[in-house]
């Protein structure tokens, strides 16, 4: 079976492969942003801090020789904790949603530096989820790009299915109702604040998990790697949802995952057109603006609810 | 039984725009009463409902439900035994969830919101039957998003969702005011049937004097934070819309409007 998969993917060269890998990794982040932005209607900026938080925790654990697979749940929990703090600041201390996110993402910059010890931690010689343990034995002699695509794809599909299942549970219904009509949640005798905290925890857990896998793919941690993550996630969500709007049977989570890959492709095209690495953030921004304007996503929700 | 004892409520306290809405306000509603509340704008009708539900805090006083003090109880905890339908049909349903999901979420009120499946398949027939009783054709639209329904359909659903689980009080906050006359009549008819069937203790605020006369077994008129008229079932029988209008005119002359 794996030989078959190898043949399937062997046509993918390294450069195209890495676009797909990164698209899939950022799809995990985008799933998190989908929860906050689309389901909860909460513009969460703390993602800019929780993504590198996951990477920092991972870098430290891997350099200390911890099994790379252990980093996945640990990163998720660290991110979920940070997301919970954003929620608590917003709900309990009654700080506005945007500000609560800014407070946490700014604070996390220092926290991430403290965790990692320095602003840049490379770990090229260490085993990661892509090379260590069973995966290493299974795919040992294969093209490393193909291995990476398979590993990341399995994780993304697993998370997507889990999220889909969760959204069908009673707790998931409540999460959706909170973003849709928080008055109804109160009428149901539930504390909407707690639901928001729960949603923010899951979303930031996913963001940190994306950071964790991204760090292992790149084999380094950099303290500034979180800049622009909110936008990247949002862009993926908006592209995915609006491109596949007409297709009924497609779940929004699937659309978001594909949206993330499309967004990475767009950026790759921009780079191929001659833009350098230093221009990237500007490319992100301009592309995001183009997406926002062309999809008319600008605060449409407010009108719909009125 | 619901009791409001010596309620004081000030808006903007300590500022020049301080307004005293309730000053030593008292109200007692016994079980199985259906109270229609009328009154001009700003007379304190909706504020009274908000105080009962805990949406706004009071400055002094006591709120009792079945002799239990709920004055300090949080809004979402109080609402476990209270059902409330708002004027705005959008407030009672989730627009991005389907009719079925909305029914399921209302059915889960009072149960823990855990990781069990949100829609209990064995209850679908029950949902379909209760939607059918509304006679709005909603039973064929179970998988449609609620946001695509009309205001009347949404309000009917909101009403149905509110009474799906056992409640002590039904609170209707001008729930027909945003609907066209025909739909409003229909919703009122459904309301009357439900209240009669389930023997619910109900408080209904309305600006429609005809409904106030036609429905309920007690009539309350609010004015400047006081219940200036309180008629029981027998007295109410003898009243007509003109009688209420006449009181309206008298009080508005008194306060110089």
From TrEMBL, chain A:
* The protein's name in its UniProt record: Putative ABC transport system permease protein
This protein's GO CC annotations: plasma membrane
Transmembrane ranges? 20-37, 72-91, 98-117, 146-167, 197-216, 228-247, 254-276
Q: What is its main location?
A: membrane
Q: What Pfam families has UniProt attached to this entry?
A: BPD_transp_2
CDD domains hit by this protein: TM_PBP1_branched-chain-AA_like
Q: Which domain of life is it from?
A: Bacteria
User: Is the keyword tRNA processing in the record?
Assistant: no
Keywords associated with the record: Cell membrane, Membrane, Transmembrane, Transmembrane helix
| InterPro entries cross-referenced by the UniProt entry | ABC_transp_permease
Q: Which GO terms describe its molecular function?
A: transmembrane transporter activity
Compartmental location: Cell membrane
Q: Which topology term describes how it sits in the membrane?
A: Multi-pass membrane protein
Automatic annotation (TrEMBL), chain B:
GO MF? ATP binding; ATP hydrolysis activity
Quote the SUPFAM superfamilies the UniProt record gives: P-loop containing nucleoside triphosphate hydrolases (SSF52540)
Q: Which InterPro entries match?
A: AAA+_ATPase, ABC_transporter-like_ATP-bd, ABC_transporter-like_CS, ABC_transporter_ATP-bind, P-loop_NTPase
Instruction: Enumerate the UniProt keywords alphabetically.
Output: ATP-binding, Cell membrane, Membrane, Nucleotide-binding, Transport
Q: Which SMART domains match?
A: AAA
GO cellular component term of the entry, any: plasma membrane
Q: Give the PANTHER family listed for this entry.
A: NITRATE ABC TRANSPORTER ATP-BINDING PROTEIN, TAURINE IMPORT ATP-BINDING PROTEIN-RELATED
The entry's protein name is Putative ABC transport system ATP-binding protein
Q: Which organism is it from?
A: Anaerosporobacter mobilis DSM 15930
């Amino acid at each position: 079976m794996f030989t078959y998969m190898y043949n399937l993917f062997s046509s993918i060269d390294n450069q195209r492969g890495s676009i797909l890998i990164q698209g899939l990794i950022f799809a995990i982040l985008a799933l998190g942003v989908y929860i906050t932005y689309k389901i909860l209607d909460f513009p969460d900026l703390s993602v800019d801090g929780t993504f590198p938080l996951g990477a920092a925790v991972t870098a430290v654990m891997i350099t200390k020789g911890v099994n790379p697979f252990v980093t996945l749940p640990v990163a998720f929990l660290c991110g979920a904790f940070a997301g919970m703090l954003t929620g608590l600041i917003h709900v309990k201390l009654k700080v506005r949603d945007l500000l609560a996110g800014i407070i946490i993402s700014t604070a996390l910059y220092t926290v991430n530096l403290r965790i990692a010890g320095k602003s840049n931690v490379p770990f090229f010689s260490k085993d990661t989820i892509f090379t260590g343990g069973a995966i290493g034995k299974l795919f040992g002699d294969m093209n490393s790009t193909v291995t990476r695509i398979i590993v990341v794809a399995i994780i993304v599909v697993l998370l997507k299915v889990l999220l889909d299942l969760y959204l069908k549970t009673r707790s998931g219904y409540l999460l959706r109702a909170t973003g849709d009509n928080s008055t109804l949640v109160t009428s149901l005798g539930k504390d909407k604040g707690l639901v928001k905290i729960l949603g923010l925890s899951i979303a930031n857990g996913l963001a940190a998990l994306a950071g964790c896998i991204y760090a292992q793919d790149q084999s380094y941690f950099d303290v500034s790697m979180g800049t622009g993550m909110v936008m990247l996630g949002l862009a993926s969500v908006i592209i995915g949802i609006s491109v596949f709007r007409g297709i009924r049977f497609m779940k929004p989570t699937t659309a978001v995952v594909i949206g993330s890959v499309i967004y990475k492709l767009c950026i790759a095209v921009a780079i191929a057109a001659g833009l350098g690495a230093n221009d990237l953030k500007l490319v992100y921004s301009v592309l995001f603006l183009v997406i926002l304007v062309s999809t008319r996503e600008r605060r449409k929700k407010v009108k719909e609810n009125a | 039984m619901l009791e409001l004892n010596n309620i004081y409520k000030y808006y903007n306290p300590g500022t020049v725009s301080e307004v005293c809405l309730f000053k030593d306000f008292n109200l007692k509603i016994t079980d199985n009463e259906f109270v229609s509340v009328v009154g001009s704008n700003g007379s304190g009708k909706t504020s009274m409902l908000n105080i009962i539900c805990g949406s706004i805090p009071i400055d002094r006083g006591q709120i009792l439900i079945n002799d239990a003090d709920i004055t300090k109880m949080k809004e979402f905890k109080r609402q476990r035994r209270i059902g409330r339908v708002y004027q705005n049909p959008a407030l009672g349903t989730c627009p991005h969830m389907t009719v079925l999901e909305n029914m399921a979420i209302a059915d889960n009120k009072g149960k823990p919101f855990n990781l069990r499946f949100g829609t209990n398949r064995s209850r679908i027939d029950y949902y379909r039957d209760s939607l059918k009783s509304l006679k709005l054709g909603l039973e064929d639209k179970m998988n449609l998003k609620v946001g695509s329904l009309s205001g009347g359909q949404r309000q009917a659903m909101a009403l149905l969702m509110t009474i799906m689980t056992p409640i002590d009080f039904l609170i209707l906050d001008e729930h027909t005011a945003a609907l066209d006359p025909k739909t409003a009549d229909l919703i009122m008819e459904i309301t009357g049937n439900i209240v009669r069937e389930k023997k619910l203790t109900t408080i209904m605020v309305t600006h429609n004097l005809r409904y106030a006369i036609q429905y309920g077994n007690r009539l309350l008129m609010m004015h400047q934070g006081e219940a200036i008229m309180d008629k029981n079932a027998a007295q109410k029988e003898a009243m007509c819309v003109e009688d209420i209008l006449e009181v309206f005119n008298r009080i508005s002359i008194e306060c110089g409007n």
